[in-house]
């Protein structure tokens, strides 16, 4: 069973990371206490992730609101709705296919609430339209897992580059190797590095 990341645990993670990797001292001086912005879990949360893929925040929000207003934010309705109806709220042909695949996957979302991050990944990634990054973000922002790091994420790679004062971003493989010793608090490290990347100009 995986514990949910709480504010107290974020404090614990910050203290632990600064002892494990002193470069985090500078990171937290810049960012302050990392904030975990929670996202919806269950079918609705994953459908929103699919809708948001490769779109600006504004465009994704507009389409999501249209979809919700039309009453399409549930698996049974997605299964029954026509392609024309789903296109009318802004879903592309590809995202309609992804939404239907999710609706037909029969995921036990209650079981996912108590699953490990790897179990979440193993459950979600076979579904068309849900890749590793989406499953990792769901584990962090919807399920609040404390030990999630997505080495393919460009924001995390850039945050690492700035923290380590390197000229080039680390590759995904390098980012994975750098972050591995930060377990079991890699979610706290992720939140800090995203914020550090946004706030620093190095």
Class based on secondary structure composition and strand pairing:
mainly alpha
Portion of residues in beta strands equals under 5%
CATH superfamily of the largest domain, called what?
A: Hypothetical protein, domain 2
Count of DSSP strands: 0
Output the CATH class name of the largest domain: Mainly Alpha
Report the uncertain regions: none
Helicity level, as a percent range? Answer: 55-70%
Shape, principal axes of CA atoms: elongated
Q: What do the pLDDT scores average to?
A: 94
Characterize the main sheet: none
Examine the coordinates and then state which fold CATH places here, giving the name of the CATH topology of the largest domain: Endonuclease III, domain 1
Distance between the termini: 39 Å
How many distinct domains?
Answer: 2
In CATH terms, what is the architecture of the largest domain?
Orthogonal Bundle
The helix-strand sequence is: HHHHHHHHHHHHH
The Cα radius of gyration reads 18 Å
Annotation field: number of helices: 13
């Amino acid at each position: 069973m995986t514990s949910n990341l709480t504010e107290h645990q974020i404090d614990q993670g910050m203290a632990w990371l600064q002892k494990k990797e002193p470069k985090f001292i500078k990171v937290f001086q810049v960012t302050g206490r990392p904030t975990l912005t929670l996202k919806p879990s269950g079918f609705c949360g994953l459908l929103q992730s699919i809708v948001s893929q490769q779109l600006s925040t504004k465009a994704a929000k507009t389409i999501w609101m249209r979809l919700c207003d039309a009453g399409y934010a549930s698996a049974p309705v997605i299964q029954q709705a026509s392609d024309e109806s789903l296109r009318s709220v802004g879903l592309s042909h590809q995202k309609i296919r992804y939404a239907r695949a999710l609706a037909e996957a029969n995921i036990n979302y209650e079981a996912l609430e108590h699953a490990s991050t790897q179990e979440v990944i193993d459950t979600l990634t076979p579904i068309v339209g849900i890749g590793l990054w989406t499953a990792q973000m769901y584990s962090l922002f919807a399920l609040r897992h404390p030990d999630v790091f997505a080495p393919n994420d460009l924001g995390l790679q850039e945050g690492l580059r700035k923290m380590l004062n390197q000229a080039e971003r680390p590759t995904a493989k390098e980012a994975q190797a750098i972050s591995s010793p930060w377990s079991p608090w890699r979610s706290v490290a992720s939140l800090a590095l995203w914020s550090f990347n946004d706030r620093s100009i190095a």
